[in-house]
Amino acid sequence: MPDLLLYDHAASICSQMARLALVEKECHFRRHAIDIMETSEQFDAWYVALNPRAVVPTLRIDDEIVTDTIHIVNRVQALPGPDLSGDATTQDWLRDIMALHYGVLLYRRRLDPDGTTPQIFARGRLPERLRVDRPGLDDLIDTRLAGNRRFQALLKDPVGIEQHVAGTHALIDRMASALDKGPYLSGQTYSLADCFATAALARFVIHGLAEAWKDSALTDYYARMKSRASFVTAGVIDTGHERDL
Ligand SMILES: N[C@@H](CCC(=O)N[C@@H](CS)C(=O)NCC(=O)O)C(=O)O
Q1: Three-class SS of 19-84
Q2: Residue 245's Cα: distance from chain center in Å?
Q3: pLDDT digits (tens, 9 = 90+) for 85-138
Q4: Cβ neighbours around 207 below 10 Å, total
Q5: CA of 140 to the centre of ligand 1 (A)
Q6: Which residue puts its alpha carbon closest to atom 11 of ligand 1?
């Protein structure tokens, strides 16, 4: 087995997906925590050299660097261990679960009674600080600032928010329907699709969306996913305050 090192952040949904894939693949791996919140270590030069988009997770496999969660879990699937490939729908599930805007689901609930979202404002200011603290990141910072402006504009648009929430409900319904065919999302055995679904459902629980599936097959499914040892070993989080995400 190669040497595996995952650069991740405990609460990040993408990191939880990658950890679930590694644990379910029965890989021994080490973790290097990247503080993406307080000290913004993802913008440190050494990390940007590994992951030019300055996001987590990143997987090092011996001397190979793999970025992007979908690439990471597919690369993990190619390692020796249980087959997590699922059926022909697996890659669609990975794409569609990843495509949801988890930030909208989080911030639409307005963290403060006065309607402000302090973390977003802080994150908006962060790139400006980085221009001074960590020079040489101008393109990355410009991209982040533009993304933050789009995000803040979206959060002021109730119709846009509603579209994202409706898209989430549609995906929840599709997951529930897929479970009519069998115990797992993609095929008759546990697969990468279940890694993504578990981390997403855990996040939906925190965002108050669990009501949406309470009468569906997802209730039993989520209980089964939670009872797998990987839920704890991979550090999947479905409790706590949104402010900590
Ligand atoms: N498409 C990327 C998205 C990764 C991503 O957005 N990661 C978040 C955590 S879930 C992150 O690192 N955020 C830090 C930041 O935006 O500065 C992937 O799949 O790896």
Answers
A1: HHHHHHCCCCCEEEECCCCCCCHHHCHHHHHHCCCCCCCEEEECCEEEECHHHHHHHHHCCCCCCC
A2: 11
A3: 999 999 999 999 999 999 899 888 766 666 667 677 676 677 778 888 888 888
A4: 18
A5: 13
A6: 55
In the chain, the amino acid numbered 43 is F
Q: Which domain holds residue 169?
A: 90-232
Q: Is residue 184 predicted with pLDDT exceeding 90?
A: yes
Output the pLDDT for position 156: 83
At 180, which CATH number? 1.20.1050
Residue 140 sits in the same domain as residue 179: yes
Cα of 56 vs centre of ligand 1, distance in Å, is 5
Q: Are residues 57 and 174 in the same domain?
A: no
Query: Measured between alpha carbons, how far is 214 from 170 in angstroms, rounded to an integer?
Result: 15
